């Protein structure tokens, strides 16, 4: 196992609010030894990087993963445990919790760390483009295919393919991904030649894939194969004690970027506001809020925190009578129906619903049937029954 080198500036650690007790050092050593990394905490300029040992001269710098809460460390230990196992991993978490960062750590802590890490945001592609993007295509496969193109699976040969927002992948493409997971083979678009690949898949989502599979929107077989291990990223609201650490870290980085000499510090009220906020956007939102506060502050003491940059400082102009939205008249149908015998009330309700659907559909009966949740034949039966009143 490679030797773990820890270079730590203790003053900077105290500034960032990190606990320097042996318990924390012990956890760092455990994760560092598992990771096959030399770990450097370089705090002269406020950042943290993990640099893997590589034979090439190119250094790979990973984005920081900072935290000292129990929830943070529990997640990191589970991530380190599954990293060297050559099986798919599914990352589940809210927006802004760091799913892409977790996927990057999974790759560089694995035995594939010297291979490529290829990422694809499935939400950014249309269904028509996704197949060719994943599997590539042959020359002449479709209009505009002027030459053969390798897809993301081939690009990730020997390494890791990270599929972000995997819940957005169309069901027909899920079938092809399932085949890659099971048999390590696929065909390019426009080709019948099978291509073998050696790729580890890491997928991420903020959707409920189990619910999607129950609605036949996500293949259960693929979900079973991808969920060798399911890692749930903790939301920031559950990472007790990490908000001051992260806030100070992002503030220091922003001040360094702006060329300021003094390290920013938060007032007690400002820090209380940060810790009391729910953070629906998690760490990504915290980073934006803190950087904005540092940028707007004229002194190193951060006093004001603005959670909503879209709040206008100007009063809205009063609306004229013409601009006021018209109030919809109160509809008294329910009272009207309650005063009638049951059969008569049901009969009249059906007539009104049919009439309303027909008017809205411009008397297209198929469209009206769909609007009412009926088949065309069901609608025709009701229409014949109530044709007289409808006329």
Tell me about this structure.
By secondary structure, this protein is of the alpha/beta class. The protein has four domains: 1-68, no CATH class; 70-232, 3-Layer(aba) Sandwich (Rossmann fold); 238-302, Helicase, Ruva Protein, domain 3, CATH 1.10.8.60; 337-390. The protein has 17 helices and twelve strands. It has helices spanning 10-15, 22-35, 70-82, 99-108, 127-135, 152-155, 171-183, 209-214, 220-226, 242-257, 268-276, 282-296, 333-338, 342-360, 365-371, 376-385, 387-390; strands at residues 6-8, 37-41, 49-52, 89-92, 117-121, 160-164, 185-187, 194-196, 200-205, 229-232, 265-266, 301-302. The strands form four sheets. Strands 5-6-9-4-10 form a five-stranded parallel beta sheet. Helix 2 packs parallel to helix 3 (70-82) and helix 7 (171-183) packs across helix 9 (220-226). 26% of the residues are buried. Mean pLDDT is 80; it is low at 1-61.
